[in-house]
Amino acid sequence: MPRWENTDCTPWTLRDRLGLLLAIALVLTSCGQKTDVPRESEVDSAQSTTAPPDSAKKSDRSVGEHPLPDHVLQFCASQEQSARDLAKRADVPPPDDVWRYFEAAKVGDVVQADETYDCLVMERGGNHPDTNFPYTVHQPMLEAQLAIEQFSLCGTKYAMTYGSNILAALPPGSVYLGNSDAGRGLPTVLARSSGKANSIVILSPAQMGNGGYRAYLRSIYGGKLNLPSEAEVEAAFDEYRQDARKRQGEGKLMQGEQVSVKDGETMVGGPTAYLEIAYRNVRLVQRSNPERDFFSQGSGVPAWMLPCLAPHGAVLRVHREPLPALSVEDLQESDAYWEREVSVLVGSWLKPETTVQQVCAFAEKVHLNQDLSGFSGDPEFVRNRQSGRNFADLRGDIARLYLWRIGSIQGMPTPTDYQVQAPEARREMQLRAEHALRQALALCPSCPVALFPYVGFLAADQRMEEAARLVSIAAKHDPENQMIHQMAKKLEMLRQP
Fold first, then answer.
1. What is the mean pLDDT of residues 128-156?
2. Distance, CA of 104 to CA of 100 (rounded, Å)
3. How far does Cα 353 stand from its chain's mean position?
4. 201 vs 91 pLDDT, higher one
């Protein structure tokens, strides 16, 4: 059975260590584990004892102060009914606190709901629900809690805008992969409130390795979605373990991937292994539903899936086969979409030629000092950090895909077949990636999805002053983010003669 292990590293140069730090940060955000530890990280994993890394612990942040709109309260009530229906089929009854949770959620008592949720999920079982807490019953409760958190933190305007923008990008019949709290929670509540739930399937990739989660999917989608059999899931897991063991023998393990052998059995661990297991199950679902189009919120996917991604409005389309290159049409449509979005949110000042220093000056003036003199964007947006983070994640994920296409992401090598080769085209893709990254950091200066890959790119390009300035602003914007502070120290050491 797999488990998560720590391994020692041989001494590396300081630049190598910075690269590793950036790569691990990318893997962690790929798993949906942001620095504020979203609820979506509270999942069981693939086959038995596999679990997300130890960073998936209770967040210190609380719910927000924004009141919940009526449709969210109605959603919580419908989730309670789903939980009661699922509880009737469970082998053991759920704890009474489940129903106390829904009583608080239905009337908009976000503090009581949050405290009850934490008691049920975190204190009883660490990262997992209590053993007497049926996993299928946990899912409607989790989806209600994601909606409560995001609406109370973001407010109705930008919770609605975020979720609506994602749904607008999904044609009827789509399967959508929600990779974060906002990415799963907001489209779910809006789809079910608007009646789109019958035409769009929403999956949590991080939980696809869990049999209880697959049972929940069968209960809500019935025969509308073909799910892999348990034998197929087990075969995919064994295939990954065999592949990982072979690569270990060849010295080709990926960063964030750990493999050991005990009593003849291959043990796997680390965030990269967790990501691989989850997405191999996603691939099984895609193969079992050839008539459906697949889309993803987030480019945090295994390396073998990156060539299949292409920008599509607020999200990414997941093609069934690798794309040799991104189409000009997709790139232009994505650029136009984000120019409109960013202009509304933070103003139309940010152009492709805007420099890192200008973005940092804006971030310091508007985000840090809340000086809105001359500001042409939406004051409500820049006063709400969670909203900024949500939108910046979306833009940063697309930018990260562009960097990967030119082989410029630390720890994530790009096969030659998928790299942009012509010098002029590479330069154009680099400019497009940098512009997208600067847009993301103008939306949220401490967004790890944009910050980590951009700092890695700048450091590799010997643009240390720009990298250091970005990290300095990010550390002030999110002073509790220890990974950003570690990165700042590494950069300072690299800059010393």
1. 86
2. 6
3. 29
4. 201
Please give the pLDDT value at position 41. 34
Whether 206 contacts 41, CB under 8 Å: yes
Phi first, then psi: give them for residue 266, nearest 5 degrees. Answer: -80, 125
In sequence order, what are the residues at sequence separation of 6 or more whose Cβ sits closer than 8 angstroms to the Cβ of residue 158? 380, 381, 384, 387, 390, 391
pLDDT digits (tens, 9 = 90+) for 448-474: 999 999 999 999 999 999 999 999 999
Contact 154, 390 (CB under 8 A): yes
DSSP 36-86: T--GGG----STTT----TT----S----SSPPPHHHHHHHHHHHHHHHHH
Distance CA 431, CA 438 (A): 11
Query: DSSP secondary-structure letter at 95?
Result: P
For the question of whether the overall pTM of this predicted structure is more than 0.85, the answer is yes
Token pair 């680390």 in the structure block, residue: 270
Write out pLDDT tens, residues 112-139.
999 999 988 765 544 444 455 788 899 9
**DSSP codes of every residue in 276-311:** HHHHHHHHHHHHH-TTS-EEEE-S---GGGGGGEEE
Q: 318-327 contacts: CB < 8 A, separation 24 or more?
A: 318/177, 318/286, 318/294, 320/286, 320/290, 320/294, 322/417, 322/418, 323/418, 324/417, 324/418, 325/405, 325/418, 325/420, 326/401, 326/402, 326/405
Instruction: Say which DSSP state 343 is in.
Output: H
The token pair that represents 146 in the structure block: 């994601």
Q: How many residues does the chain have?
A: 497
Angle at 409 between CA 403 and CA 412, to 5 degrees: 120
